[in-house]
Amino acid sequence: MATASRLLLPSPPPAAPTSRYPTLLTVPRSCRLAIPTFRCRATAAAAVDAAAPLLLEERAGAVAVREFVTLDELRAAVRLRVRTFYEYSRDTVGAEDHRKGLAEREYEALQNRISGNMINFQRVACINGTVPLLPSLMSAEDLCLACKFVEDGEERIVVGSLDLNQCLWLPDELTGKRPGVNESSHTRAYLSNVCVAKELQRNGLGYALVDKSKKLAREWGITDLYVHVAINNEAAQKLYMKSGFVYESEEPAQQARHLGRPRRLLLWLDMKNEPL
């Protein structure tokens, strides 16, 4: 769905953030050829927020699901990912500096992947779900502050995001087996960094993001689309199954323990059977 740069933080250093969903794909500034991921420290998947989600106002064109348009939007998407994947206790010393450091590293790495400067990544697209700064979102002050950007004079909020990666494999993840060795493996792609703001879950945004990625993958000539999901993240599994993905394989327990994260399932979608 990693070895972080050393940060100069006040003593005591911040506790390791808890990763809730698929890991961010990132790369250290000092090494452009290595592609490590942040290590997932959680022992259980994040539960779906028990409180009733905020409802998006029914307004024509309120929700836009598309590839990112501006760098300001890309930054907002990265901040949403860090906000979603990592949690800190309120009294953690230096948490905000640590969060900003993660966001800056991922922003730089995402730009490199999108621009084609990363080995293994043939093509990468960042797909976001954005909404105007609606009155119904005003109670989610943290979301609005962290994930806001301005486009054509309008304030908008990134409320969902994912990456579509045309590549042979993702770092520290199971590798898809399709297409076979006698076929072009460049028609394989992976989804990563799939997230929806917790305040807006159960609004269909996750499904819309995956659906948009499927359409773009078809335009790229992708025949086999993959996604990794934690074995205990039932909500995400239901989303992908609803989107047409099926089980292909799963991560060995020993590998998951070595990486310090829950085991992953590898799900596959046969794009050749997807309706046009």
TrEMBL record:
Extent of the signal sequence: none
Gene Ontology CC, one term: chloroplast
PROSITE patterns, sorted: GNAT
Disordered: annotated segments: 1-21
Top-rank taxon: Eukaryota
Pfam family, one: Acetyltransf_1
CDD domains: NAT_SF
Single Gene Ontology MF annotation: acyltransferase activity, transferring groups other than amino-acyl groups
Ranges for domain N-acetyltransferase: 124-272
InterPro entries for this protein: Acyl_CoA_acyltransferase, GNAT_dom
Entry protein name: N-acetyltransferase domain-containing protein
Organism: Lolium multiflorum (Italian ryegrass)
